[in-house]
Task: structure prediction
Amino acid sequence: MKQKKTKRRSTFSEIWRNYRKNFSGMLGLMIIVGILVTILVGNFIYDYDTDVIGQNISERKQAPSSEHLFGTDEFGRDILTRIIWGGRYSLAIGLAAVLFSSIIGVVLGSLAGYYGGVIETIIMRLADIFQAIPAIMLGICFVTAFGQSIFMLTIAVSIGAIPAVTRVTRASVMTVKDMEYVEAARAIGANNFVIIFRHVLLNAMSPVIVQATLRIGGAIVGIAALSFIGLGITAPTPEWGAMLSSARQYLRGYDYMALYPGLAIMVTVLGFNLIGDGVRDSMDPKLKK
Amino acid sequence: MVDNILEVRNLTKYFKTKKGLLHAVDNISFTLERGKTLGIVGESGCGKSTIGRSILRLIEPTSGEIIFNGEDLMKLNTLQMRSMRTKMQIIFQDPYSSLNPRRTVSQTISEAIELNHLIHDKKDIEKRVSELMDMVGLADRFANSYPHELDGGRRQRIGIARALSVNPEFIVCDEPVSALDVSIQAQILNLLKELQSKLKLSYIFITHDMSAVNYFSDDITVMYLGKMVEKSPVEDLFLQPEHPYTKALLSAVPIPEYHKEKRKRIILRGEVKSPINLPDECRFSSRCQEFCDVCKGSEPQLKEIRKDHFVACHNVT
Amino acid sequence: MDKHEFALDVSNLTVEYVTSDGIVHAVNDIDLKIPPQKSVGLVGETGAGKTSTALAIMNLIPSPPGVIRSGKIILNGYDVLHMKDSELNQVRGSEVAMIFQDPMTALNPVLNIGEQIEESILLHEDVTRDEAHEQACEMLEMVGIDRSRIYDYPHQLSGGMKQRVIIAIALCCNPHLLIADEPTTALDVTIQAQVLDLISNLRDEYRTAMLLITHDLGIVADMCDEVSVMYAGRIVEHGTVEEVFTNTKHPYTEGLFDSLPKINDRKSLLKPIIGLMPDPTELPEGCTFAPRCRYAMDKCFKRRPSLNAISDTHEVSCLAYEDPVFSIERNKHGR
Result:
C-alpha cells in the first residue's frame, strides 16, 4: 500500500513544461538560439581586424551576391560579417540593461510595496518624476554626461525602464504581502528578511520576469537608437544601430546597406517578444492544473 | 483554582480610515481555561478574526491586556513576541491562500522548526516532519508535493501541521473549515478534536457556523459589530439564548431535517450597519425585533443574568 | 395553460470537458425532471457536477473545452440543445433564469442597477423605455429595496442587496424555471435567511418552478419539494424531501447527514466520509462511491449500479439493495 514519495518538481521545470507547449514561444526561442549560435560561430570564423573593420576599397558598395550575401558597405566590408559580429553588442547590452534595470527596480519596488508609508511615497514620487521624462532623453543626457563606454551605454538604456519595473514590482508585492501565508510566516516567527525573500518576492516575481523578457527587445531598440544618433557604439565597431545610421546617407541606390541591419534588429526583437509572450502564458497559474 | 491559559481584558482595536475610526473590536474581555475551547461566533465584519489576530499580535491592538500563561503579551518586544509564538499558533480559513504556492509540503511544515532552531539535525527535522504529517493524517508521499496539487482538505491539514510544528499550547482556529466541503469539514473538525485531547491544546474557535461551534466549543461568545453581545457555556446558550441577535442567529440556521410545516423563523430586518463612527446606542437596535426607546439611549453593558451567562441588552434582565 | 408535463425534463445528459490532462467526466448520464411550480434541490459537494448541469440546461457550457456528449433537455417544451442562438437568447431570461453564487461579480459595476434590470426587461418584452423603468422600480420594491435606490451602482450595495437585485433581474420576465446556483453561499446567516425567505415568497407568487443547487441540506429541507443527491457526476438518490431525509437510502447521502454537526445534539461524534471524491478524469469502473463506502462489497467495484425505484418517487443507485434485508445504519437506529 505504501506509495513512493512523488518526485520533487521545481517551479522552473513546471514553467518549462508549460512553455514547451507554446508554439510561438518556442519559435521565439529558436530564433534567439539561432542568433546566439550564429554569433558564437562567427567569433571563430571571422577575424575582427581584417574581416570586421578591415577596409577593402576595391569592393565597396557591392550589391548582394553569392560572394557577399548581404553586399558590402561604403568601405568594402562584408555586411553579413558585420551584422553577425555586431549582434554581440546588441544582445549583450540589451540583456545587461534589462538585468540592471530589473535589479534596481525590484529592490525599490519591494521596499515601496512591503513597507509602505514614507518610503513608498518617496520612491514612487521619484518614479513619477523619472517616468515623466522620455526614456531616450534620459539616455542621451546620461551618455552626454558620463561618456560613451559600453558600461555607461548599458546604464543609459536601462535607466528609463527602472520606474516601470518599480511600479510592477510594488503592485505585485502589495498583493502578495496580504496573502495569509505571509501572516502565517509571521505567526511562526519569521523575520522581515525571511518573509520578503522567501514568501513575498518569490511569489511576486512572475509579472516582473514577464515584463523583463518583453523589455529585452525594447532595450535593443534603445541601443540602436542611441547609436543611430551617434551616441552609442562608435565607428568602426559594428553595432546594428550604428550601421543603420551610416547606411542612411546611401539609402538612395544602396538600400540593402540599411535593409539588413534593420532586419537583424527586427528579427531579434521579434524573437525576444515571442519569448516574452510565451513566458507570460506559461507562468499564468491558471494554466497549471 | 481555575487554570486559565489566556485572559483577555478590554481588548480594543480601531482602524483609522478616511471616513473615521472603524471600531473593529470594542472592549472585549474573556478568559480561556487550559484544555478548553472558546467559540467566537458572528457574521462577517463583527471583528471575530481581528480578535484572533490581535491575541497573537499579528495585528497590533489599540489597547487592552492579553495575559497568556500569566504574562502580559502587550508588554513584550518584537523579539520576545516572536519566541512567544512557539507557544501560540493560528490556523487560517482559506487553505488556498494560507500556503506559499512555491514551497513544498515538507518545506512549509519544517520552516517553523528551522526558524526557531527547535531541532538542529537535518535528519531529525525530516523525522519530525513525517511525524507531524502522520499526526494530521497526511500520507508521506505528499512530502514533496506543492499545495496546488492537493485538495482543500489536505491543504488544511498542512496548515494544521505547520501550526503544530512548534509544539504550541494554544491555537486560534480562524474559520478552519468554512472553505471546505461538508464531508471534509467533518474530517477536519474530528482531527482538531482528537489533537486537542492528545496534545492538551486550548483553542479559540472562530466561526460563523452555529452548528460547528456547538459541536466544537465549551464556551461561546457571540459578537455583533465589534461588541460582545452574549457569552455563556455552550449548552446554556443553545438551550436558552437571551440576546435578540443570538435568537435570530440560531433561528436562521437551516436545519437538515424534514419538517412538514414551514419552520417559524425570526427574519431580521436590514443589514449590519457600518462600523465607522458609531453613535452611543445599542449597535443592534436598527435590526432588533424587540427594539424599544431605551435601546437608543445608551450602549448596553454585559450583565450576568445567570451563573456564567452574560448578556448585553437593555431588555434582558 | 400548462401544456407541458414538466417545467424541465432532462434525460441522459452527459457533459465532458476535454483538457490536456484527459477528459473530465463532469456529468454522467443523468435524468432530472421538475414538475411545474415545484422546487427540486440538487445537492452535492464541490466537483459533483451541479453547476455543469445548470449550465447545460441554459446551454451555456463553455465550449471548448466543454462538450455535451449526449442528452435531451426539454425546457417547458423547448428543446434547448437544438436551438439557434437567437432563439436561445429568447428562451434564456423569459423561460429560464439563473441566479449565480457570487453576487459580487454577477452585476456589471459600471451600470446602475436600474439600467441592468431594465436591460433584461427590454430584451424580452415589447415595452418602451419608460415602461421598463417603471417595471424595474416595481421589481426592486418586490425584492425589498426602496425604489429611490434604482440609480445606485453595485458597489453602493451590500452583498445581500446585490443578491436581491440579481433575483429581481432573474424574475422580471416571469420565467417558468428559476435556476439558483448556491444563491446564498456567499452571504451571512441572517442575510441568507432573508434572501431564502424572499426567494420562496416570490416563487409562490410567480408560480415558478425552481432548481436549487446547494451543498447545504438544511436549505433543501426549508426550500424544496424534491431532492436529487449528486456524486461524481451521477445522481445517486432522488426522492421527495421527506423520503430522502427520513428514509435515507444511499450510503453517500447518509454520509452527508452524518458529517453535519447537529445544532441540538452536541455529544454524538461526527462520522465523516473517508477519503475524497474520485478524480473526474478517471472515474472508477464500478460504483463511483464504492472506494469511500463503508458497506461496499466486491461487486460494487465491478458493476455500476443504476437508479432503482423504491417507491413511485424515490430512487436510489446502490447495489446493496439487491439484498432485500440490507439497510444503512442511519435507518436502523432511527434519529
User: Anything to note?
Assistant: The mean pLDDT of chain B is 89.
